[in-house]
Amino acid sequence: MNRSLTNRHWHFLAALLLVSNMAASFTPNVSAQTQMPDAAGLMREAQRLNREGSLAQASDAARAAMLAGRKRGGLDFTELDAGALLIDLLYKQARYDEARSAAEEQIAHWEQQAADSGRSSRRDSRVTHRLGQAIEASMMAGERTEVARLQGKLFAVVSPDPGLWRILPDEPRLRYDLADFSMPLMLGQWKLTKFEPAQKRDSNTIVLYTQELPGGRLSAEIALSYDEAQRKQSAAERQESADAYLKRHKPSALETAMPDLSFDGLTSFKRGEQSVCEGEECLNVHWLAFRGDWRMDIDVTFGLHDEAKATEQMHQLFAALKWQSAPPLFRERPLAEQIRNIEVAASLANGVAKAAELAEQALPDAHFPEEIAQMQTYIGVDQYRRANFDAARRALGLAVPAWENSFINDVLYRNALDYAADIAYRQGRSQDAVALNRKLIEWQESDATLGWSVPKDENALVNNREGVHLPLRVGDYRLRPDTHGRFYYENLQSGAQIGLTVGMPQSSEQELELTLRSFMSKTLGLQAAGIRKAKFSPRSAVQEGVSAIGQKWEFEVAPLPEEQDHSSKKPVSGAVRKTPTKMTFWIVDRKEQRSMLRAPVTDNSRSSAEADQVAQAVSW
User: Fold this and answer.
1) Helix, strand, or coil (residue 178)
2) Coil, helix or strand for 397?
3) Which residues are 595's β-sheet partners?
4) 9, 150: one domain
5) Is residue 170 situated within a structural domain?
6) What is the spatial distance between Cα 532 and Cα 555, in angstroms, rounded to a whole number?
7) Do 317 and 426 share a domain, yes or no?
8) Considering the domain boundaries, does residue 191 fall inside one?
9) What is the pTM of this model?
């Protein structure tokens, strides 16, 4: 049922006129400043007109509410609700092509918003929901070509892992290679309107099929998941449970009429009952099936008077589902068990190599992005530790995008970014290094970075109030936030750290010396002896105003007796930190604020030169 482009433009114009007319009606004095009605007021008006049955006027009001909501900027829930109401109202009036156009216009608006802000609309739930509505409307309008086009866009927006999912164009069908399962995109009046692929091994993949029957909508939601824990119960035990259920439960006429799932090696249960759907009585039938390590749930609802037609349509849909096998997703041991062993190994002081070895063994059983990311991170860190930077780069190059395509493990994702950035710096790939380092800092937003940002044109963390600039990288050292006002520069390869604290109150030299000696003793396990003080000329963070005043203090240090036998090996990288012979502090005062850089100096001149390089690179 197509309407002309002119007609659609008329309704859009009517929405704009409605905004103007309502504004005039709300203004007591024509000469007074115009007061535009807010989005919420327009939405209430649309809802009132809908209740009264004035659907055309309600549609115009809903469109006006949506447009008014957009003007407020950002994520506006009135805009979302008004947009959904607009599509529903057009659908009720059988203006299906307009409903599809309204849904696509909203999608285009959100996609443009995302593009303008440098984001992606990939997996945007607003977009996928509107695509489902557009597919529904296109099928009602008899536009099967549009249905296919919109389903293709849905697949693109959802962006499933191409190694797990693909569309078979000849039929066309949606195929889940991991489960060896495929399903139609369209079948008679059935059409797929929702697609949510599992992001984790134990999560559900959900697809939704719908069609219109005389008594209302027929919907069939299929959920497919993998559960290694099912191995605790054998196929014989499952069948015994099914038989016991059938003995206890006498099938109703509805359950008997509905089809059974006919896949080989399947244990299934079926239950039908009267229910309530969107405030009205309906019928609901649920299938629960187990096959190997896989579980399938199918939930079907339809109107009370559509039982015969719904039964016929379910037979048609079930016949089109193809599940050739139910392959296990591991070879010898469940992946969950392998991951536990990897995590135990990684938690040990010398366990990085063992964790990587186990990850290599488990890698063929890793299928989902999170699993692949986890294995490749352990492998990459171990290769970094061995100074095999090319191999580490390959592994971490797979880990970082896999983490960003899955549920992120904070610690492992941070390590993947950290080591990938360090390798890029060492290999001279400056552009990659800066991008990874920037992403690492932005990911670690915390109390330490509150009031700080990384400007687009700088490779530094900048204090927005004081103007202090902390380079993200100085030589072989990269910046890491700690807690509020505390940072440190660390050489990942050697494990050497240079601490930095900003925003401290000033104190006298005597008080400061006592504080530093206490810190070295209680925190670092070092006994401080003689001290040498010198002037230090810091790079000022501001061109005008109060300049920064700097000092450099150097303490002779030795381990406290009880600390001499303690190992200082870093678990993650395996780097051994040498015991310092000196502790150097760069103390910078500006206004009433004090900042301080501290560095351990070992018995070689390189550590002292590296610390000096960091001190000179910071803009205080």
Assistant:
1) coil
2) helix
3) 588
4) yes
5) no
6) 7
7) no
8) yes
9) 0.82
